UniProtKB/TrEMBL annotation:
Family in the record: Belongs to the ABC transporter superfamily.
Source organism superkingdom: Bacteria
Native organism: Halobacillus mangrovi
Entry protein name: ABC transporter
Keywords linked to the UniProt accession: ATP-binding, Nucleotide-binding, Transport
Pfam families with a match to the protein in the record: ABC_tran (PF00005)
Residue ranges constituting the ABC transporter domain according to the UniProt record: 4-229
SMART domains found in the cross-reference section: AAA
InterPro entries for this protein: AAA+_ATPase (IPR003593), ABC_transporter-like_ATP-bd (IPR003439), ABC_transporter-like_CS (IPR017871), ABC_transporter_ATP-binding (IPR050763), P-loop_NTPase (IPR027417)
An example Gene Ontology molecular-function term: ATP hydrolysis activity
PANTHER family per the UniProt record, alphabetical: ABC TRANSPORTER ATP-BINDING PROTEIN, ABC TRANSPORTER ATP-BINDING PROTEIN NATA
Length: 294
């Protein structure tokens, strides 16, 4: 079942484009990455889903309900972490969290304690005394305290140190194992690669691809590094499907998309000292993808 179904959604800000004609679905139980460079339209999509802004055309459903007509009802089962968090500084953390919890029809006090312990956050401190990272933790707890069925996270890791990021990712995995669906927006490819099952790539307000991370890595390119014995012309490997062909120290490097047997036969024709065939990381794939599409 689709938890989020976006159907031909367009959002214009006056004459300028927020997102245009985007469609994709997030299935129940998925950790779904939403990735693209700054200004691509991730926050616009998320804010539309949450009913904070209204679509210009097209629309979306969450849990099968229309975002424009059933917003408050849907919101009860969503946890949202905005990319930037703003608070009334002179409140204590616990008071703020209790206030957030008061919007839900359940007792969240135990969950608040558990999460604060896990994230190592002192509930008695005043918000104004907190570092950026600790403020972010308050946002994370706010998003999770009512045990939502869907988590929508907009660039959630900014401001968290690597150790806390790791804890946060573990927490997300635990939530996901309990059945929580997660939409995770980011411009950092490595974190999407670590966490997500599938990903939608957005560029200039349009979805350019929706794919499993594993397929993206397999289908796209292999990274080759070949160290020849003696001299070899770089042009030897200038074959269909080869890109980014270059010398790197004593080795020839390139990305290859195509039948692996063709490439292995070609390599067998030359004298080599060593060969490395690797999956490129997502960064390489995306850079290549963006350049190709540009
Ligand atoms: N309130 C607004 N008024 C006018 N234009 C806006 C507004 N909010 C966003 N935009 C424009 O819409 C486009 C998409 O922006 P959006 O913030 O959704 O991108 P993003 O992918 O979330 O990027 P970032 O990570 O930088 O927030 C950009 O061109 C941006 O300038």
């Amino acid at each position: 079942m689709s938890v989020i179904k976006i159907d031909r959604l367009t959002k214009m800000y006056g004459k300028s484009r927020g997102v245009s004609d985007i469609s994709f679905e997030v299935e129940e139980g998925e950790i779904f990455g939403f990735i693209g460079p700054n200004g691509a339209g991730k926050s616009t999509t998320i804010r539309t889903l949450l009913g904070l802004i209204h679509p210009t055309s097209g629309g979306a459903t969450i849990f099968g309900k229309d975002i424009t007509t059933a917003g408050p009802e849907i919101a009860e089962d969503i946890g949202y972490l905005p990319s930037e968090v703003f608070y009334y500084d002179n409140m204590k953390v616990i008071d703020l969290l209790n206030y957030s919890a008061s919007f839900y029809k359940k007792d969240c006090s135990q969950r608040i304690k558990e999460l604060a312990e896990l994230l190592d956050l002192d509930l008695k401190r005043k918000i104004e005394d907190l570092s950026l990272g600790n403020k972010k933790k308050v946002g994370i707890i706010q998003g999770l305290l009512h045990e939502p069925k869907l988590l929508i996270l907009d660039e959630p890791t900014s401001g968290l140190d690597p150790l806390m990021q790791q804890k946060f990712f573990n927490l997300l995995r635990q939530e996901n194992e309990k059945g929580v669906t997660i939409l995770f927006s980011s411009h950092i490819l490595s974190e999407v690669q670590r966490l997500c099952d599938r990903v939608a790539i957005i560029k200039d307000g349009e979805i350019v691809q929706v794919e499993r991370i594993s397929v993206l890595k397999e289908k796209n390119h292999k990274s080759f590094k070949i160290e020849p014995k003696g001299e070899l012309d770089l042009e030897t490997f200038n074959l269909p499907g080869v890109t980014d062909l270059k010398w790197e120290h004593h080795a020839i490097r390139f990305l290859y998309q195509g039948d692996i047997n063709t490439m292995m036969k070609k390599i067998a024709q030359v004298e080599i000292a060593n060969v490395w065939i690797e999956e490129p990381d997502l960064e390489e794939i995306f850079m290549h993808y963006y350049e190709k599409e540009a």
